[in-house]
């Protein structure tokens, strides 16, 4: 039994196994990078008035994310003639950006006379922050697995990355519900809305994180039957 315990403790991964873990970790890091990039921007959704709504040479549109919103004033002459709404946000114009007060005073934001849903926006932001926490924990587990040369830490790492991907996707879904709640709060100003590139970035990140988490599970599976056979081999000797 003493020799068996020593054999279990000194069991290390091979260079091939370490290379596969690093490759799977690279996939997860891509998801982490896309998540951070998308969460830090304010291009989750674009709200655009009809380009001739004001009756002058300018029109207004808004775009916002989890933390900040911007109102942009664009020149109608710069907009595609076939486009009926103001935008896109990449056109040159004046911007007025402010951070939301959901997290400080708890006030709702008003965008073109429409009021945000504080609870939904807070829920989306909290889920996004929780997903970042799980990503950090998963990265720590992978670092410990590579530094100590053991497979055990891949199991909690896979759980952390899969859960972080699910939380990211839930954050996107709840954010979309908050946009629909905003649009239904007032109907005096017609608005065209569309989810922007940040949502595509974060949504892709969630799928990549889940895929990376399952890669770690696949790496763990081949070792489980082998480890279960160890007691039998030692008992026969």
Describe what this molecule looks like in 3D.
The chain is 56% helix and 14% strand. The strands form two sheets. The chain has a five-stranded antiparallel beta sheet with strand order 4-3-2-1-7. The protein has a two-stranded antiparallel sheet with strand order 5-6. The protein contains six helices and seven strands. It has one domain (15-221): Butyryl-CoA Dehydrogenase, subunit A, domain 3 (Up-down Bundle), CATH 1.20.140.
Concise synopsis of the structure shown:
The chain is of the alpha+beta class and 237 residues long. The chain has 6 helices and 7 strands, in the order ααββββββααβαα.
Architecture per CATH nomenclature, i.e. the level-2 architecture: Up-down Bundle
Tell me the name of the CATH class. Answer: Mainly Alpha
- How far the N terminus sits from the C terminus, by CA atoms, comes to 11 Å
Helix content: 55-70%
Element pattern in H and E: HHEEEEEEHHEHH
What labels describe this entry?
PMP22/EMP/MP20/Claudin; Butyryl-CoA Dehydrogenase, subunit A, domain 3; transmembrane helix; disordered N terminus; alpha+beta; two-stranded antiparallel ribbon
């Amino acid at each position: 039994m003493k020799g068996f315990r020593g054999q279990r403790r000194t069991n290390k991964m091979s260079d091939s196994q370490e290379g596969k873990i690093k490759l799977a970790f690279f996939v997860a890091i891509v998801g982490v990078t896309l998540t951070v990039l998308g969460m830090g921007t304010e291009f989750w959704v674009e709200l655009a008035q009809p380009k001739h709504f004001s009756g002058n040479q300018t029109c207004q549109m808004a775009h916002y994310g989890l933390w900040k919103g911007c109102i942009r004033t664009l020149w109608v002459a710069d907009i595609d003639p076939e486009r009926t709404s103001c935008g896109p946000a990449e056109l040159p114009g004046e911007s007025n950006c402010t951070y939301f007060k959901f997290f400080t005073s708890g006030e709702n934001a008003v965008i073109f006379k429409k009021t945000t849903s504080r609870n939904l926006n807070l829920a989306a932001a909290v889920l996004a922050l929780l997903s970042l926490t799980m990503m950090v924990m998963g990265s720590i587990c992978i670092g410990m697995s590579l530094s100590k040369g053991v497979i055990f830490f891949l199991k909690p790492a896979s759980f952390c990355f899969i859960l972080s991907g699910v939380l990211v996707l839930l954050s996107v879904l709840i954010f979309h519900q908050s946009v629909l709640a905003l649009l239904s709060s007032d109907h005096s100003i017609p608005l065209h809305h569309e989810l922007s590139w940040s949502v595509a970035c974060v949504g892709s990140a969630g799928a990549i994180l889940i895929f990376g988490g399952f890669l770690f599970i696949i790496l763990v599976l081949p070792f489980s039957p082998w480890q279960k056979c160890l007691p039998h081999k030692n008992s026969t000797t």
